[in-house]
Amino acid sequence: MSLVLATQAPGEPEIFASLQGEGPSTGMPVAFVRLSRCNLACIWCDTAYTWHFDGDERPHRDGETFDRRANQFNLTPKEAAERILELGQKRLVVTGGEPLLQASALADLLAALPDMEIEIETNGSIKPIGHVDIWVDQYNVSPKLEHSGNAAELAINSEALEFYASDPRAFFKFVIAEPDDVAEVLVLQSEHGLKSERIFLMPEGTTSPALQKREKWLSELCLEHGFRMSDRLHIHLYGDERGT
Q1: How confident is the model at residue 164 (pLDDT cuts 50, 70, 90)?
Q2: What's the pLDDT tens digit per position in 68-99?
Q3: How large a percentage of the chain has pLDDT more than 70?
Q4: How far apart are CA 119 and CA 106, in angstroms?
Q5: In a domain, 158, yes or no
Q6: How many CA atoms lie within 13 A of 186 on its CB side?
Q7: How many CB atoms lie within 10 A of CB 62?
Q8: Is residue 243 part of a domain?
Q9: Handedness of CA 230, 171, 94, 112 (dihedral sign)
Q10: Is residue 100 part of a domain?
Q11: Does residue 228 belong to any structural domain of this protein?
């Protein structure tokens, strides 16, 4: 069974070392592996090359589609684990796309990395299988709000959210484009019992000026509601580039 990875250059899977740019682990040195494919289609997604392939008519603000063959790379879990270990990091962030779509192969990858701390970034619409869950140290759960362009019945899975809400390993990271978006966060918090100290509000944006502009008013909303704020450190350091 193979993992389907995104590519950071033609013929090169997106496995790299960097600083974690978002959420509770911001600033930590980590290895990243980015898996391809997603069950959602966020209109502002900054990794559309993982899902918006030629022929996919779901909207994206850039209007660009990508050749599937050029933007996917297959590795066995053992091959991927070897490349990850070569990076010499203690912690692995599995991101996407939506990593939990490849749960069986992902479980094999994590089992091959028993000494690494594992952090999984997920959109929260899928509950992890047990063979994945046993290896995970942290979940970064990012449920998609209305401004993402996804229908609520696709983006919000109550059973999955309640699983994450009851798990002390899970943190919730909401992408915020406008102040009114926070009202949706408050509804989800109330309906699913999300703890304020585990909620991060993160500005939508792929440039430093865009992020800084939103952070000015977002910081006030975090203070008002007792939420934490997440920057996007990698954007400030490297720009909106693959493999960072």
Answers
A1: very high
A2: 999 999 999 999 999 999 999 999 999 999 99
A3: 100
A4: 12
A5: yes
A6: 10
A7: 11
A8: no
A9: positive
A10: yes
A11: yes
